[in-house]
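Internal ticket #5521
Category: modeling
Description: The requester needs a full-assembly model to guide mutagenesis choices. All entity lines are attached below as received. Residue total reported by intake: 683.
Assigned to: D.W.
Attached entities:
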Amino acid sequence: MSLWRIAWKNMQQRGVASSLTVLSMALGVAVMVGVIVIHAVAVKQFSSYAGGYQLIVGGKGGDLQLVLSTVYHLGESRYTLPYSFYREFTDGKYADLTVTAVPYCMGDSFDPRPLEDGPSDQLYRVVATTPDLFDKLEYGVNRDGTPRRYRFRDGRNFRSDHAFEAVLGSVVAAKSGVKVGETINPTHGISGRGDRHDEFLVTGILEPTGTSNDRAVFVNLEGFYLLDGHSLSQKTVEEKALSGPTGPPQVENPRGVLPPATLYNNNDEPIEPLSEPQREVSSILVLSDDQMGPTILTSQINKDQNQAAQAVAPLRTVANLLEGIVGPLQVVLLVLTILIVVVASISILVSIYNSMSERSHDIAVMRALGASRSSVMLVVLSESILLSLTGGVLGIILGHALIAFAAPYIEAQAGIQLAFWEFDPWEIAVIPALVVLATLAGLLPAISAYRTDVAHSLG
Amino acid sequence: MLLLEGVRKSYAQPGAERLPILDVPRLAVGAGEQVVIRGRSGCGKTTLLNAIAGLTTIDAGKIAIKGVDLTRLPEAARDRFRARHIGYVFQTFNLLPGFTALENVLLGMTFTGQRPDRARAADLLNRVGLGHRGHHKPAAMSVGEQQRTAVARALANRPLLLLADEPTANVDPGHQQQIIDLLRGVCRDENVSMLLVTHSNEVSDQFDRVEQLEEVNQVLKANV
């Protein structure tokens, strides 16, 4: 009979005490697993949101603000760029290094509740853009390395020459109940208290992407420009000395959607697009296929003194954010959970140590049967390790069960997708750490076992 | 086979001289011999057996089993020697409560450094009439069955010497003779020397060689 088996039998003999000790360890480890996995998945997803964007160009200001507003639809984008700067990418000086440029105009929101109910807390950002966003850009890569392309669950992409068409992210469609063929009215501003704009016809609903775009409404940029308060006044246009191409395309194959020659409303009646000088963009997503393209573009844009523009690589910005803010927070959480596990280990110590007087007889019997002092010491240490590992394994299972249980809530609240089998390599470190902790916890009772006076304990 | 020479043992007393417990000038037991040491309770019988088993260290003298002087062995070697060559039957059986009868016998084989022999453990339980009780825990067994299990455990490693400390003291009268017959029978069958201590005349009368502890232990002789 091995020493492990003897230790296991000892655990069984003190079933209730052992179960409670295992439970306290399991709960500690479950919390730890929860923190590790949720943090890892959150970081991965937060980073992967940004993975679909090679370069973001926006008005000079904080690069974090630009990334947060463009990628995560958080905060405000205060610094706009003239439309002519977008044209620099489509058919201007940056066109050679650009594969696709997609303009973003932000600042409106969509409240699915009726106007008479007043502003609600369920507000979704409206992003005015071109159909290229879904036709030509990807949103990251799959585990097998293939690119993730936008797909439509229902309907189709909006058309560039139909001003008032819109596409809904999967969460917006699910929460609002709006279907293809129905219309929505964006609200001016992001507070939800602004005026309701003209209606847009929903032509498509995206499949879930697992990114913040699931929670956004995408409308045709041309329609957005025609809404109240979205055009620059003639006076402002005259004050701004604009450069860059305007009018018909300057190159044969422009790298983005340009204002159509004829624009239609939803009744297929021709309407007049907003003139280019009166247009602004919040940011521009730029895809460059040249390996050095993003670097050269970033360098050229950021050094150009004539333009109040900046180019940022969102992945780097997000990495800095995670390192600077989320990283230390994770350390604090980990320290707290480690403390919980240490407390659980101490409960193992207390449980075994308290039972030492009753088990000293069993130890003496084993010694009388020929067990050495180190053997009885190892039996006690094995029991401590078994208690700890049983608790640890149960804790890992429990932790993942809790994650699976909470997954729908977390996804609804934070947009983070979790699954039961979402493992993090750090979890493997839990097992050896528990063995070390259990050995330390078992040391005191093990020494007590080592010192057992056999003749006295046999009585 | 067993030879004790000049064995002395005393205990320290707070604020007083050491209290002598054992003074055995010589005691020898031959191979396969069955010897009873008689003495009243509290006169050092258990201390003598613990000293022979190496569970208690002695102050002076020599305790040799088959030529090996246990007093000269380091503790770990003494433990290993005890596991392999000495069987011990206690007055209070000392079965581990969380283990079945079979597991208690296997436990007796665990510390020899060799793989426990399940077949022998089962065979021993059969020989003590408990073949059908192997998977029962001590609490589910009668005291007679518990002591028979303890006998099987003591013989698990084919010991040279079996020490029995009042093996019938806690057994009901109806089963006492059964235990004595069992001990004598299996020791004879396996050629195991037996040293049995008891205060019972009924038990001692059945043995050819009976030593009075008062004669063996000079400490008691001086006090008489």
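Resolution: model delivered.
Comment from assignee: The longest strand of chain A covers residues 100-110.
Ticket closed.
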